[in-house]
Amino acid sequence: MVIGYVISEELINLTSLIPKITNRSDMVADLIESFLLTDKMEIIEPNYISGLQLAEFHSKDYISTLENYSEDSEDEERLRKFGLEFDCPPFPKMFRTVCAIGGASITAADELGQGYYQVVINWFGGWHHGQPDKAEGFCYVNDCVLAIRQLRNYFARVLYIDLDLHHGNGVETAFYQTSAVLTYSVHKYESGFYPGGGGLESIGEGKGRGYSVNIPLRNGADDATLKRVIDETLDGVVERFKPEAIVCQCGADGVSGDPHQAFSYTPSGLSRAVSKVVSYNRPTLLLGGGGYNHPNVARTWTTITADLLQTDLSNEEIPDQKYFTEYGPGFEMKITASNIKNENDSSYLDFVINSVNSNFDLIK
């Protein structure tokens, strides 16, 4: 299987400017390159999109605010109106970065739609919280939505799978009333935890009723938890929905060692889930997402890439490269699961799985 890999030096540099993930993109790309995995994929040069193309999902006023921002801007009220504060502070080259991220994922969608690849990776995308008229949750653009909309030009039905620690609220909301896109999100869910949605009761509305599938997990979910809920629900979704293409957001903030300290996934556990997604043999777009322990994010997405290329890195040491010292003290690819108490006992998982599966008759 030939895998397409969306990457360019400017895409790396621009996404490395995002305040909450400074240099993360460069670290990910560097680790993938240091294991010579880049040579095993076909490089896809991303295109940039215009404000007009962003307006396929985002409001013109929001786009205008991004485009006209300068560091000398004193219109704090306007910035606040569009979510450009707190977790999404404005930054230099913000509009160019948004156009690069959106363009990369749309480019990937086109490559899949035209049949050039079965799998395309864009680790620089996956910004699933972005809203039509504001930035939210570190996300200045919702490239997931833009990519899905682009795929719909080629495929009648698209399945969106979200493995991030946080609920994929921006994507779910965008397609909440349609049966053409089914959203499936596995995430932490508890009172006060961002973004607050994604309960079992959120199943879609109108024509989209039954086409939003949420798997809310409690603190401490581990690889076995993830494997069970996916094994016992995702096959049913695919069988009923019969997607023609898949988009999978592979956020790594549930991996052990993340500052959230909420889940204790390992790279191999998340990779196993992604491999299952790819095994459905549909055109599949893999996106990045959350993850704030940058070395562990790099380990995770490099592991997923390597596993898809049938290259085992589980017992490998980190090669000598630019960010080598960041991987101490062990300097290994392997990450050990944390000892967080797993509050997802069998009875709770039974309840969640049975609740999800009971709605499958709504999917036509």
Walk me through the structure.
It is a single chain. This protein has an 8-stranded parallel sheet with strand order 2-1-3-8-7-4-5-6, with helices on both faces. Helix 1 (9-15) crosses helix 6, helix 9 (223-231) runs parallel beside helix 11 and helix 11 (267-278) packs parallel to helix 12. It has 13 helices and 8 strands. It has 364 residues and is of the alpha/beta class. The radius of gyration is 19 Å and the shape is globular.
- Gross morphology is globular
Return the average pLDDT rounded to an integer: 97
**What letter string, H or E per element, gives the SSE order?**
EHHEHHHHEHEHEEHHEHEHH
- Rg, Å, rounded: 19 Å
Structural class: alpha/beta
How many DSSP H or I helices?
13
Helix content: 25-40%
Q: What characterizes the major β-sheet?
A: 8 strands, parallel
Low-confidence runs of at least 5 consecutive residues: none
State the separation between the terminal residues, measured CA to CA: 31 Å
Strand order in the largest sheet: 2-1-3-8-7-4-5-6
Strand content: 5-15%
Brief write-up:
This protein has helices at 9-15, 24-34, 51-54, 60-68, 76-81, 94-113, 143-151, 169-174, 223-231, 234-241, 267-278, 294-308, 346-357; strands at residues 3-6, 42-44, 119-122, 158-162, 181-188, 212-217, 245-249, 284-287. The chain has 364 residues and is an alpha/beta fold. The relative contact order is 0.14.
